[in-house]
Amino acid sequence: MGFIYAMIVLTIYELGVHFARNLKRYTCLASMLFFFISSSSFTYPEALSLNVSFVSDFDRTEDLGDYYTADSLEATTSESDAVLADKADVDMSAVVTDKVQEGTEEVISDEFYSIDDFEESDTEEADGALVKEDGAGDEFSASDWKIILVNKQHPIPDDYEFPLGNINATMNCDQRVIAPLKEMLKAASKDGVGLVICSPYRDLQRQEGLFAKKIAYYMDAGFSYMDAYNLSSQAVTVPGSSEHQIGLAFDIVCGDYYQLDEGFGETPAGKWLAENSYKYGFCLRYLKGKENITGIEYEPWHFRYVGVDAATVMHDNDLCLEEFWDLYLYE
Q1: Which stretches of the chain are assigned E, i.e. beta strand?
Q2: pLDDT tens, residue by residue, 214-269
Q3: Is the pTM of this model over 0.70?
Q4: Could you list the active site residues?
């Protein structure tokens, strides 16, 4: 017993001496591990060993809110559901439930307006918005509101302001974007593509609710808070860094495919948007293969207004907004 006791004491002593002599090394190692863990939510892992498919394993439709279509530009909210369904060239199954923050109340959007009811002034306003922008070419300004960079590393500035305009009775966005947005919907409709707008402007409280809801969803599926946060930050933008909060981002689907998943990119509507949205100043914000740059998974339904000039450059060169900034705006 004395021999065993002596061995234990010597072992503890030697370990103590070892750690004392290598204190700086272990302190640096601990600091590196802490930094990696604390900052891991701001990167998109190339190989996340959680055996989860972001799209197929979880239903994304619970995040959908109000809808707005190219066939829904001038009707009033007092029309009945039957009349609305008759007027809209959209399957009413696209009107899905949006459970608000606590999940105790359900809000269903049933507002549709007909593109045939376009007023002449609306058309002229939209056409005028697509005139070539001043300063066209490769010279861009970081102060231009259209190309403001908002992501996890560049949160919305505290003093950022913009004119909030009404798309319809329940949906808002930056007022300066409404005309080109309507023009794009109208052009798609002429090509036989019925686009549906959902989730335009969101305030901070709404974004916080969606993010918290997504974290709770993953935690209910058995993930730790850290893993749930990481997964959530790749599916729902961290509050304070969402382009929806500045009224320049739109989730766009179509009447016969309203799920927010990668499959939308293979639909006629998804392909039309990918090929034509730049003509109206919109870019596909989160491109496939750019996840390590944007920090967000591929979202073929998420479009951001950046202006015709920037959108054209991004489309022609297959650039995401972060790459555009690196090439044209960072010194």
Answers
A1: 67-69, 97-99, 106-108, 164-166, 172-174, 195-198, 249-254, 282-286, 299-305
A2: 999 999 999 999 999 988 888 788 889 999 999 999 999 988 888 889 999 999 99
A3: no
A4: 299
